[in-house]
Amino acid sequence: MSSVIRAPLFDGFFLAGFECSEHVLQDGRRLDLLASTRHDELAARDYVRLRSVGIRTCREGVSWLRSEPSPGRFDFRSMSSRLLAAREHGVRVIWDLMHFGWPDHVDIFAADFAERFADFAEATARHLAAHAPAPHMFTPINEMSYLAWAGGDTARMNPFEHGRGMELKAQLVAATVAAIERIRRVLPGARFLQAEPLIHIAHDPAQPETRGHAERESRAQYQALDMIAGRQWLRLGGQPGHLDIVGLNFYSDNQFTLERATIWRGDPRYRPLSDMLLEAYHHHGRRPLVLSETGAEGDARADWLRYVADECVSALDRGCELHGVTLYPILNHPGWLNDRHCHNGLWDYADAAGERAIHEPLAEELRRQGPRLLAARARMLSQLAEREE
């Protein structure tokens, strides 16, 4: 038996994700989920809540909008309460630099977009170097592939374009590469979690000739990270060292047909999550994985977590280096388009006293699955260490 122990990336298996979208809607309204969930106001109490259920790591949004109010002028006071609360309560933060939103004075298609984003990333890194202890971890741009499709091809979200998806994806990748390089100048030990959708597109069995098309569409989910790793479009500056930790965002509706009809669990075409995790793990060169977002709504929340945990244990026992699962979002929030009360978190809206009711079925499932997943991760890391001896 090997005495070498591979270290996990996180203390605990479950992570939390605080919804932080701040993009402009088609009607001109701009979202600010940090404010509408009151997390920016209640960060310290929210971190205490995380610790009460054994969660010690979370994803947070820096907010480019708040941090660069005018071109080249940076002000990170909006982070201050969260930085202080994280230190005080022992919560490690993974900072999202751009989570579906950028300032009005930034043109995402402009030739200087990558440089503008890198300036912001470097300024953030300098602020964290002065105010937050190591280790430091960042998600430069959340879901580049989805943003390129929804904002560049189908006009479903900002910047509301058609036929410019590849152009937008290239912009996002170039900006990510530039940000990584600039952050590493300030924080050489920084780690990077790239959060991308994990999807499966199935063909219609009655139309076997569409199988190849569906497989190509499914494989396209890897393109953005392949660009970052220098496996495609070398002119964007990607290199193998730029791809660090692979984050995969997976929800109950992440499997669909070529016509975008959702395939639900129970359908024979539905692919087990464990198989999808293993495929991504091998495709990306056996880099460490994190399920960087997952969750469900209403009464489905606990059952969905049970399914995800079962599949994660299966993937871990088959050698997948999976380090954690992020409950996303951790707080209920208003819907993007209609302000509906989305019951998809572990805790609800805060009341007048700042208290949040917990969704007990999900909390109970969290307590049940935590030790099981930790044990599976320990087995996996031990096996990896043995193979490296």
CATH homologous superfamily identity: Glycosidases
**Structural class based on helices, strands and sheet pairing:** alpha/beta
User: What is the CATH fold-level name?
Assistant: TIM Barrel
Mean pLDDT: 96
Indicate the overall shape: globular
Low-confidence stretches: none
Radius of gyration: 20 Å
- The CATH architecture is Alpha-Beta Barrel
Tally of strands: 14
Given this structure, which CATH class is correct?
A: Alpha Beta
Strand order of the largest sheet: 1-2-3-4-5-7-9-10
Instruction: Figure out the total of helices.
Output: 12
| Cα distance spanning the termini | 10 Å
Helix-strand string: EHHEHHEHEHHEEHHEEHEHEEEEEH
| Oligomer type | single chain
Number of domains: 1
Describe this structure in words.
With 389 residues, the protein is α/β, with parallel strands linked by helices. It has one domain (14-388): Glycosidases (TIM Barrel, Alpha-Beta Barrel), CATH 3.20.20.80. Helices cover 40% and strands 16% of the residues. Helix 5 (113-131) packs parallel to helix 7. The longest helix has 29 residues, at 360-388. The protein is globular.
Topology:
Elements (H helix, E strand, L loop, with lengths): L13 E4 L15 H4 L2 H14 L4 E5 L2 H4 L12 H10 L2 E7 L14 H19 L5 E5 L2 H9 L12 H22 L4 E7 L2 E3 L8 H9 L3 H6 L16 E5 L5 E3 L15 H11 L5 E6 L5 H18 L4 E6 L5 E2 L6 E2 L4 E4 L5 E3 L1 H29 L1
Parallel strand pairs: 1-2, 1-10, 2-3, 3-4, 4-5, 5-7, 6-8, 7-9, 9-10
Antiparallel strand pairs: 11-12, 13-14
What is shown here, in short?
This protein has 389 residues and is of the alpha/beta class.
